[in-house]
Amino acid sequence: MKKRYASIWFPYLTTDWQSKRKPDLRDLPFVFASPVHGRMLIKAANPAAEKHAIVQGMLVADAKAFFPSLTVLDERIGLQEKLLKAIGLWCIRFTPIVALDEPDGLILDISGCAHLWSGEEKYLQHIVSRFAQYGYEARIAIADSIGAAWAVTRYGKRNSIIPTGQQLEALLSLPPMALRLEVPVVERMYRLGLKQIKSFVGMPRSVLRRRFGDHSVLRLAQALGYEEEFILPLKPIAPYEDRLPCLEPINTDKGIEIALEKLLESLCNRLANEGKGIREASLTCHRIDGKIEQISIGTSRSTAYIPHLFKLFALKISQIEPALGIELFVLEANKVEDAEANQEILWNTRTGLEDSGLTELLDRLKNRDMACEIFRYLPAQHYWPERSMRQVASIAEKSSFDWPLDRPRPTRLLAQPERINVTAPIPDYPPMVFQYKGLRHLVRKADGPERIEREWWLDPGEHRDYYAVEDDKGQRYWLYRSGHYGDKESDQWFIHGFFA
């Protein structure tokens, strides 16, 4: 695919922003200024001020001398950078690859995008009209190279499209500064009479390098497309993402469902061909008013099964507020894992965690209510009971060893053991009576003790002597004494769990 780039220039970025906030200033000459070496210097001027020959870099005192009614505003530090980044993120609706071209421009890699707007001409007109709708003057050029697009945007015909392979013809009549050269180099060219690119484009590269430096040769080669130029996107390109622009804004749930089905079909078919499935995914909706709506889902097991994923998203479509309409849908698989290939079967013999119906039920429960927490635990190699399990992220994860079955363990284990009062007849003897939460329990049967030493390499402390006891009502508990009998600092009884 042939690379195509668009350069967008905002000649009045900050002043347009100010005019949006205060419409009464739009037709009045005003500037932003800041102190430099004790003098107020103009940092930005609006179009009305430029009509009076007031431009950036001029001293406020000089401007006031021939235009006393000029409105001077204090420059807002960092405003231009924030505006440019916000606009760049907004432009992701036109292409996934958007880079900053500081201080007042953007570079868009539009390769393979313009056909979604029926060609580059309509694509360019759409972008320009959208910026005009929001009150920003934007000048755009499209070319095979970043350098050519940048040059034509600022020094060529406004809103131009340079046909493929014709960047040289577009550059010939432009001044040397269109190549993004340093000011001293440009001044030297002017002194030599080289006032247009056609004056030196045919010179040997060795001559240009000797007179104007390596950088001038590189910039010329980049503009002509002989040297590739790389950009750093504002948002990293997701490896698994699909986009669906809309010819007409979508503002109904049914329209969102149709768009979602198309995106899921495209993305899941690609994932299935690569043997992968979705664990986390998000649907981002770009509204025509510039705002973004987003919903996300998660699955217990990686899957590329379209009906199941659609049901999970369908639970949250009501959360999307389309307002005047959505113009772009972006489906992104945020987390992808290897998945088993779906196989058609006559009957399902899988049960338990292998049953896909179970995982789909868990996914629906969790995505219906994000406050619903579903955890799965596997055995962990620890002697200490509260450390003998670990939480896992996937329902498909396998354990390297099984739960120990040689000793009784309670069905329910308390997260933190709770202190109890115990009566025992003689040292190292099972308890006869214990009191827990204000209730007195008479022990009829007891089994133990089972001594479990503390894992000294993790934390210091006493060992535990565990007893499985049954009270006069048939209820069974797991109790333990901490430390040796008779040691008043450690001789304490606790309840740690309940048997079924």
UniProtKB/TrEMBL annotation:
<comment type="similarity">
    <text>Belongs to the DNA polymerase type-Y family.</text>
</comment>
<dbReference type="InterPro" id="IPR001126">
    <property type="entry name" value="UmuC"/>
</dbReference>
<dbReference type="GO" id="GO:0006281">
    <property type="term" value="P:DNA repair"/>
</dbReference>
<protein>
    <submittedName>
        <fullName>DNA polymerase Y family protein</fullName>
    </submittedName>
</protein>
<dbReference type="InterPro" id="IPR043128">
    <property type="entry name" value="Rev_trsase/Diguanyl_cyclase"/>
</dbReference>
<dbReference type="Pfam" id="PF00817">
    <property type="entry name" value="IMS"/>
</dbReference>
<dbReference type="InterPro" id="IPR043502">
    <property type="entry name" value="DNA/RNA_pol_sf"/>
</dbReference>
<keyword id="KW-0227">DNA damage</keyword>
<dbReference type="InterPro" id="IPR050356">
    <property type="entry name" value="SulA_CellDiv_inhibitor"/>
</dbReference>
<feature type="domain" description="UmuC">
    <location>
        <begin position="16"/>
        <end position="153"/>
    </location>
</feature>
